[in-house]
Amino acid sequence: MRQKDGGADPGRLSRRSFLCTTTVAAAAAAAAGWRAETADAAAPDPLIGATGPRGLVDTNVWLGQWPGRRLPLEETPALVARLRRQGVRQAWAGSFDGLWHKDLGAVNARLAAECRRQGRGLLTPFGTINPADPAWEEDLRRCAEEHQMPGIRLHPNYHGYQLDDPALARLLDRAGQRGLIVQLVAAMEDERTQHPRMRVPQVDVAPLAALLASRPELRLVLLNWGRGANSVQPPRLAEAGQICFDIATLEGVGGVASLLRQVSAGRVVFGSCAPLFYLESALLKLQESPLTEAQLAAVRADNALRLRRRVS
Amino acid sequence: MKIWDAHCHLSGVPGQTPAERMAQLLSFADRLGIERLCVCMGMRWSYDPTPADMRQQNDEVLAALQHWPHRALGYVYLTPNHVAASLAELDRCVRDGPMVGVKLWVARRAHAPELDPIVERATELQAPILQHTYLKATGNLPGESTPMDLAELARRHPAATFIGAHAGGDFELGLRALRACENVSVDLCGTDPAAGMTEMAVRELGAHRVLYGSDAGGRSFASQLGKVLGADIPAAAKKLILGENLRRLLRPILQRKKSL
Q1: Does B28 sit within 8 Å of A42, measured CB to CB?
Q2: ipTM above 0.85?
């Protein structure tokens, strides 16, 4: 890892400049004696300039209201403003409504409209598809053709099917034929702190390797997989097919670096699960782990942009 | 800004020895500007430790502290299932040793009378008590405390200083359960970085009763620090939470030990 400014390539972020412009860096730098104490720790410093020319791509963003509590950034304009302030240039947004509502056609139409109206060019809609729903093929067509979405988001645990369900295999085939990115969400909340009447187990991803291996063209992003999902074995899944892992629920000290020892840098994407989670928690994980400039660039944006380019 | 982490462990961290693990923890803490870590419990945990196990775990923390006296602070791990041994361990590690607080985990629920002599002795030594609290929809361990258990204990010991770990786990219930107990602060660690948690803690308890903690190495320093830095609260509140509150709670014992 380089410790000094490289200087030669303005498109590549140096460790020093990254530290000095991230949210925590003001506090961190002061604590480490690098510069005077920050005047206002409450106002997150923008990551602009620290995120490279492409900024951050957050692959794990949500719109709407979470049923369990009001979230500080649940209004789309406030969320967009925070994302922008922290250097996010593209956010792949799903809908909380997609977890609970049965009329997913309407959910996806609202999501697409909200991204157009409020997204200011930042929000990219990822529609929700439920392969156990009798109308899922029409929902998929609308996502791809009418809403021009680059991908879809799946919730096997909230929609009540297992990954070895033949309906999911058919959906993955259709999504692959349409060139859609498939995001599979392994969990939303820690099972320990769920509402006692709204308990949803994590997705058992054990069958995923076989699904990937038999679909070499499928591009899948696994979201919120890092918490207690014992069946998730990143190296095995990475070997099986085209899969990327987000970092929203990745825990343990130096978690991103640890993941990058298991899979290549091309398999890890930035994801925050904002506004359900604090966006800054995911941002700081990039700072906690000692990453090379190439690893940082890949995780921050390049991997996600590569996925999008292949779709386009 | 001096960031102090109120809740760290030697488990879940690479390294064969306590010193190696502490070095690992500090290498990550340094990247986030975290100045001091409060560490408790050893390299292998047990829900209901024997006196020998308890002593070994504390020895491991002492070994870690020995190598990093200016970066690490220790809480002595005790169990109300072995009161006499715990009181002896409290004297060994806090009265006669470098540790500055007490850690109680899941051996017995916090409202049990067996905790009383431990709390009384810790209070004499001016040592804050970090009590694990977690309200789980999946069901608690038999000896695992709820925040309501801690509230009951805190009401029995108004002169004691408590830290309710994890803000009760289910923070919305935990914060409400502990709100009325002025001698209880909470740490924010060991849960998902659920947006709004810190704002609620400040609203219900006041910023002066909220502490940053990570629960590293099982948790990420970063994910938990983001709870504070990403919260919509005043800058002054963040300074309190990130370090000033913990320093205030530890000031009496640190001054007595002349290590502040």
Answers
A1: no
A2: yes
Query: Touching check for A38 and chain B: CB below 8 Å?
Result: yes
- Considering the domain boundaries, does residue A277 fall inside one? yes
Nearest CA in chain B to A70: B196
Searching chain B, which residue's CA lies closest to the CA of residue A224?
B192
User: Residue B218 corresponds to which tokens in the numbers above?
Assistant: 């099982």
CATH number at residue A294: 3.20.20.140
Nearest CB to A41 within list B1, B12, B136: B1
| A283/B contact by beta carbon, under 8 A | yes
| Parent domain of A229 | 52-188+202-311
How many cross-chain Cβ pairs, A to B, lie less than 8 Å apart?
Answer: 166
Q: Which domain holds residue B239?
A: 3-256
SS in 3 state form for A15-65? HHHHHHHCHHHHHHHHHCCCCCCCCCCCCCCCCCCCCCCCCEEEEEEEECC
B137 to chain A: closest CA residue: A192
Full pLDDT tens readout for chain B, 260 residues = 899 999 999 999 999 999 999 999 999 999 999 999 999 999 999 999 999 999 999 999 999 999 899 999 999 999 999 999 999 999 999 999 999 999 999 999 999 999 999 999 999 999 999 999 999 999 999 999 999 999 999 999 999 999 999 999 999 999 999 999 999 999 999 999 999 999 999 999 999 999 999 999 999 999 999 999 999 999 999 999 999 999 999 999 999 998 75
Contact A276 B194 (CB under 8 A): yes
CB nearest A71 (choices: B24, B191, B196) = B196
Task: Examine residue A39 and state whether it is found in any structural domain, yes or no.
Answer: no
A208-227: b (≥16 Cβ within 10 Å) or e: bbebbeebeebbbbbbbbbb
Of A31, A70, A278, the CB nearest to B230: A278
Report yes or no on A269 lying in a domain: yes
> What is the full DSSP assignment across B119-172?
HHHHHHTT--EEEE----TT---TTPPPHHHHHHHHHH-TTS-EEEEGGGSSHH
Contact A274 B195 (CB under 8 A): yes
